[in-house]
Design a protein that fits this description.
The complex is a heterodimer.
Chain A lengths: L3 E3 L3 E4 L5 E7 L5 E8 L3 E8 L6 E2 L6 E7 L2 E6 L8 E8 L9 E2 L3 E5 L1
Parallel strand pairs in A: 2-11
Antiparallel strand pairs in A: 1-3, 3-8, 4-5, 4-9, 5-6, 7-8, 9-10, 9-11
Chain B lengths: L4 E3 L2 E5 L4 E6 L6 E7 L6 E6 L5 E4 L2 E5 L5 E6 L8 E8 L12 E2 L3 E6 L1
Parallel strand pairs in B: 2-11
Antiparallel strand pairs in B: 1-3, 3-8, 4-5, 4-9, 6-7, 7-8, 9-10, 9-11
Classes of the chains: A mainly beta, B mainly beta.
């Protein structure tokens, strides 16, 4: 059974803190993605990675950075958390060898910045 | 970045009713996907469509890839309580073997609530 796990389901941080969100997949997928989900806005792509040490900006990268040192792990970093980064964060993975283009999602991390 | 227009934004229906929702885009897509998100979970794929005009079913769910390749529709027949959740459409413009372009563009979501 395919599996994408995220390090925390709920996280509360203070403004200005550095925040790390971790994602691990066990499917040997090349592609990994970070989205944020907000009511009425759907899922918006923050960053994605096609390979180890490769990263590309998505639609809303400002205030975020990422790290992919190992194929199975993709980290999202909030350098200095702000209240407008309070959101649900979803990680996903996929393989370019899979012609369905399906992305497999983790359960999400609900981040609150106070 | 582009987002897909999905409607309606929310639906309140009674158990047993049929449901219809749609997604429109200003761009052409080569693949349309429909996902469902249960409360507290990540989205899970329901149906995938790969060809303009294609009609695909998965149990009580039926989805269609619009002829213009700029829209897609999802229908749920005879709704049951476990249909509650948020439904997302997603479009992909990648072509097979065009590695590196498998990003999905997601719709804004339709929240389905079933009234007892």
């Amino acid at each position: 059974d395919v599996k994408v796990t995220q390090s925390s389901r709920y996280l509360v941080k203070r403004t200005g803190e550095k925040v790390f969100l971790e994602c691990v997949q066990d499917m040997d997928h090349e592609n990994m993605f970070w989205y944020r989900q907000d009511p009425g806005l759907g899922l918006r792509l923050i960053y994605f990675s096609y390979d180890v040490k490769m990263k590309e900006k998505g639609d809303i990268p400002e205030g975020y950075s990422v790290s992919r040192e190992k194929k199975e792990r993709f980290s999202l970093i909030l350098e200095s958390a702000s209240t407008n980064q309070t959101s649900m964060y979803l990680c996903a993975s996929s393989s370019p060898r899979d012609s369905s283009y399906e992305q497999y999602f983790g359960p999400g991390t609900r981040l609150t910045v106070t | 970045g582009q987002q897909l227009n999905q409607s309606p934004q929310s639906m309140f229906i009674q158990e047993g009713e049929d449901v219809s929702m749609n997604c429109t885009s200003s761009s052409i897509f080569n693949t349309w996907l429909w996902y469902k998100q249960d409360p507290g979970e990540g989205p899970v794929l329901l149906i995938a469509l790969y060809k303009a005009g294609e009609l695909t079913s998965n149990g009580r769910l039926t989805a269609q890839f619009g002829i213009t390749r700029k829209d897609s529709f999802l229908n749920i027949s005879a709704s049951i309580p476990s249909d509650v959740g948020i439904y997302f459409c997603a479009g992909c413009s990648a072509r097979l073997l065009n590695f590196g372009n498998e990003k999905l563009t997601f719709g804004t979501g339709t929240r389905l609530t079933i009234i007892p």
